[in-house]
Structures are given as C-alpha cells and as structure tokens.
Give the backbone structure.
Amino acid sequence: MEHHFYPTNEEKTISELGEKRLLDVLSNMLLIRNFEVRAESAYQMGHIGGFFHAYIGQEAVQLGAVEAIGEKNWWITTYRCHALALLLGATPSEIMAELYGRATGNAMGRGGSMHLYTDRLLGGFGIVGGQVPIATGAAFQVKYKKIKDEISVCFLGDGAVPQGAVHEAWNLAALWDLRCLFVIENNQWGMGTHVERAVSVKRLAEDKAPGYGMKGYTLDGMDFLHCYQAFKELGAQMLKDNRPILVEVLTERFRGHSISDPGLYRTKDELKLLQERDPIEIYKKKLENQGILTEEKYKEMNQAARKIAQEAMKFAEESPWPSADTLEKDVFAP
Ligand SMILES: Cc1ncc(C[n+]2csc(CCOP(=O)(O)OP(=O)(O)O)c2C)c(N)n1
C-alpha cells in the first residue's frame, strides 16, 4: 500500500511564517549543516573521538517540529542528536566542546556526540528505542501534573520500530491517553539493514497506528514547509484530543550510519540521486521563488553559519580537559 502524505498548503504556511521567520529558518538549517560538516572535519583531524552520527539530509524534520511545536515541551531523540540540541538552545560552542570531550562541553565532556541535553531535551540515546519509554514517561508527568499546554515529542529511527519496548510504550501512551507525539524518522536504513528487511509493514505509521488506537500520518521529511505545517496541526490536535499520535517522516541520511561507515550497501549513483533532494536546496528554491532570497544573500548566510561553526571549534580547541578529580561527580544522586 502507498503512503499518503499529510495534506498541507504551502502558500498558507509561507504567509503565516512571514519573511523574517522564513529566513531565520534558513539560517538555522545552514547552521546545523555547517556545524556538522566542520565537526566531521575536526573528527578526521583527530580532534574528536568516539561515536559520531550526522543528521545531514534530515534537517527539515526536527527543524519543522521545533519551529511548529515550540521549545517549551519535552523533547527526546536518538544518538543522532546534534541538530535537536542546537534547536533547543544549546550553543554551538558547548556542543562542539562536548564532541571534543572538553570540560566546557554540554555534558562537561562526559557524554560526547550521542548524549546532549538542554532543559527541555531529555537526551540523545544510544540504545535503539531506549528513548521511547522515557518520552512516554515525560508525557505521563504532563498528565499527572495537569499541565495544560505541553506535549512530549519523541524521535526514533525506522530501526527502532521492531524493538519491543517501543510497542509497550505505544500501548501505554494510547491506554492512558498521553500527549506523546512519536515521530519515526524513516531514512530507510538501520546501519546497513534496509527498512524493508526489518519491518513487517511498509507504512510505519499509517499501518501500525491503528493497532494501538492511535492516528497515524506520513510526512515528506525533505520539505521544511510541509513538515512545519503538519507538525503545527498535529501538535494542536494533540492538545485538544489528549491522545498520542504516530508519525512517519520519509527522509534520507546523506552520510553513512556513523562517521566510520563507508556505506557499501548503496552505490555512489544511488546516493547522488538522493542528494538531489537536499532539504536545504529545496527550501532555498522556494524562498527564491517567493522573491525573498538571492544567491548573494544565501552565500552571505552560509558564510555566517560557517563562521559560527569555526568559532565553536576554536572554543573547543582552547577549552580544558575535564579534571580527573571530577570523575565521580554527577554519577549518583545525592
Ligand atoms: C538495542 C540496540 N540494538 C542495537 C544497537 C546497535 N545499533 C546502533 S544504531 C542502529 C541502527 C538504528 O537505525 P535507526 O533506528 O533507523 O536510526 P538511524 O541510525 O537511521 O537514525 C543499531 C542497530 C543499539 N545501539 N541498541
């Protein structure tokens, strides 16, 4: 069965957002992209160690969600968490310093690339599907404390869909009427395993949601304006109905699973074809067609984003290492 994209109206979204916000979104997209491209080069130069999973290609998804739903909710994601941390207020410098393992890092150099936090980001999680019960718990506390205007938003990959705890969490969220928006970012691959070899149905939300008494929708993850409008309406629907919702966002990761993955499971030509649908290029063209962006302005914005990423690298390089006597700090609750 085919996917049905959630219906959105681009003209309406454009006029609702207005010129300034539309350009701010592009700045954010460029910041996320430049941040990761610079961080990749720092990794290649040996400044960063450990795991590193780039979000390159998927930027429109979390950008659309945060822009539409608003920071003041509960957010949680996988190890692919640089973008969400940036969107929820962590500074480029503190994230870069975390990747470098420095004391000035977002988690004081103890977490690295996979474990970033803000007041509203409950973390990047290394265990596939591990964040889904926690997101459900965040939605439970919202209900328990009778908080009227907050929801919990949980990102997971297609590779988490066959994971057992995910289904227990979906069941409880539906059973207890929790306001949890489960967003499956289907980038087709769980490391080197294609989604069609891992999941029993083709439409991850439309087919799975009815089994939990949830609504299920599909979004085009390469199109920011579409994601923004759909997330805005789904967030509002959730506040009104007090029910969880399952969303599948079709997207692509343009890099390997992690920085050490040569990606031998797809050809260079296949990847090139996917990259023609770069979410930044798609959004850029839309702004050009609206007459609010020129090539010159775009280059200027890209340059500004690159400068921020380079300054973050300088900050990280000049930051101290964590001191050994803090090793036991923050390990146990007092
Ligand atoms: C419970 C568990 N099983 C296996 C792994 C190893 N592992 C790490 S990432 C990954 C693939 C997950 O793919 P997906 O959920 O689609 O997310 P993506 O990397 O595409 O963003 C696997 C199997 C793990 N970290 N946790």
